[in-house]
Amino acid sequence: MASPRSNNLERAKWRSKYREKLSEHIRNNLGIPIEPIQVRLITGVDDSYTWKVLLEKTHLFEKHLSKHSIGAYMELCQGVSISFEAVLAVGSLQRKLEESTDTKLSFTAKIQDLQIENTELNNQLNKWRNQVVKESELRRLVEDRASHLKTDN
Fold first, then answer.
1. Is pLDDT of 90 > 80?
2. What is the pTM of this model?
């Protein structure tokens, strides 16, 4: 069994690795340079970013980084940009993001785009279904008319 000291060293290694990954994520997605040691899971009013987290991962953001286990660090590392993402905190930085044209799409924006596309596709589907119903009714009427003409002759 590993000594408590080696376990702490391993935890520190993962925490450091995770802080670097989050720092890079914040810099790449938001354009905010932040030192890894300054990255926080529980952000405050002075922080220029906050986290947008899928429901199943919210438990990871209820503790400070230093309080997590190695397993949580691994889970966090795997979830960056998939289960959660950094977003600009409300304020002047939000306006900066809205004005920016070269910002990557976040998963939240992708979800919204997909929802809009889904609505458009559903509208098209309903239009085609209505068209099929109308054409089927018209065909039935034409067949009935043809049948009446045959019996009249």
1. no
2. 0.57
